[in-house]
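Appendix C reproduces, verbatim, an entry submitted by the partner laboratory led by Prof. M.T., so that reviewers can inspect both the input and the predicted structure.
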Amino acid sequence: FHAQCSQRLQSPRMDLCHVPATREKGWYLALMAPNVKGPNYAWLDPSRLYCHPQGFQDCLADLLQPFQGDAIDMVAGIDAMGFILGAAAAAKLQKGFLAIRKAGHLCVQTVTQPYTDYSGREKVMEVRTDAISPGLRILLVDQWVETGGTMRAAIELVERLGGVCVPTGVAAICIENSEGGKWIQERYKCSHCVPPRLQPRFDQHQ
């Protein structure tokens, strides 16, 4: 299998088959690629992690471990990269998946919520009104929580429709210790993949 995998997937820049002998929580974070395109882009690109079979599985397992035994009715992922982790988490939990979209893409009745994203841009998020019933317990998933604006908007949409983000909550590869990130962690059960010793480096975007 290793030889076949190496032949098909390995490149000089990305080894998708190597797995360390000891897989500590967060080992897969090293698979992520740094920003080489300047300040208009996120400082780190996690999408390479998703290309690695074992890395992706271990990331999902670490994200969902704190919610083992919790009652979760549905997983919601945030447009756009939260769709990847959210749909994978829903499949692993054998739950339905709800896409929370950037406004203007859904052809059904929606509710909307304005927000400011990590880059300071003003945007609007929307969700269909027929998927969330009062008391539905929802796990919200996104790729990253930097300033917390996007996640807070998603929480607002879910709760306006009667959904419940407590005691389930929020999962992301990283939840930074920004003002917004702390606000979310103080109010909701949260899960992320960054070990405590590495958190300061992520908060400083190093």
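Helices lie at 2-9, 47-51, 53-64, 82-93, 149-160, 179-187, 199-203. Additional entries are available on request from the coordinating office.
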